[in-house]
Design a protein that fits this description.
CATH superfamily of the largest domain: Response regulator
Largest sheet: 7 strands, antiparallel
CATH class of the largest domain: Alpha Beta
Distance between the termini: 84 Å
CATH topology of the largest domain: Rossmann fold
Helix content: 25-40%
Number of strands: 17
Strand content: 25-35%
Strand order of the largest sheet: 9-8-12-11-10-14-13
Order of helices and strands: EEEHEHEHEHEHHEEEEEHEEEEEH
Radius of gyration: 25 Å
Shape: elongated
Length: 285
Amino acid sequence: MAVFVPLADKLSSPISFPCAPGDLRGITLRVDSPPIRTLIVDDEPVARQVLRDELGAFSDVKIAGEAANGADALAEIVRLKPDLVFLDLQMPGMGGFDVIRQLPEGALPIVVIVTAYDEHAIRAFEAGALDYLLKPVSQERLEKALDRARALRGRSREVAESLAHLSEGTEAPGAPRGRKVVGRTGTEYYLLDLDDVLAFQAEREIVWILTARQRYMATQTLRAVDERLRGAMFQRVHRNALVNVNHVRKMSPLSSQRWLLTLSNGLEFIVSKRQASTVRRMLQW
């Protein structure tokens, strides 16, 4: 016999009914999730209104705000901290990729790309976009994009990695400026500017991302980081380390084939014999 006590104050005595304990195992209590706070970014007022109207059909979506250009989008992302951003790629001055590259530290919105051009959508998706919508946006495609956003909600690592890959979707392929890398401290994930990263250092199974202020755990192996950043400003100096050559301040000989690198924050790395000639050429010594 299970006894349930109602919360209503008017009922002074408990209500009981026959029930075996095993009968309760199949009962699921539904807890409604908070609405998906959404920001719409598009330089065309009509396009923003159409998307707003379409999103009105979904009860779990709340329009937190709109932005008509990239600068306003960044300001609204900081102010509103939206869960989801519908981001137009083609905007005058600062396009969608520029917005992603300039996201402030700690901002991890789920981004759905909106574009009128197939080639831009394909490039965005290949760069790691959660989803993309082609204008005019159909209700069916919008619903699928929202389903993916719902599934990704609360998964900070996946959101951060998607944004990091999207930051590489630049008009000049291979350009390193503005690119991001994902770092973790505790249970929090951060998008870090590569320009601020001094080095990547492996300690057994852990790869540390070293900045001037603190260190973060990387989400990828050192080999994967090396392959991704090949051709950028990072150079392997040892099997366990990659350094940002733009932060090298001193290179001191330890022997005929070994060097000591000193970075801008005073951190030191020994260059292995195998990498010594490559590092010297890169630094033009």
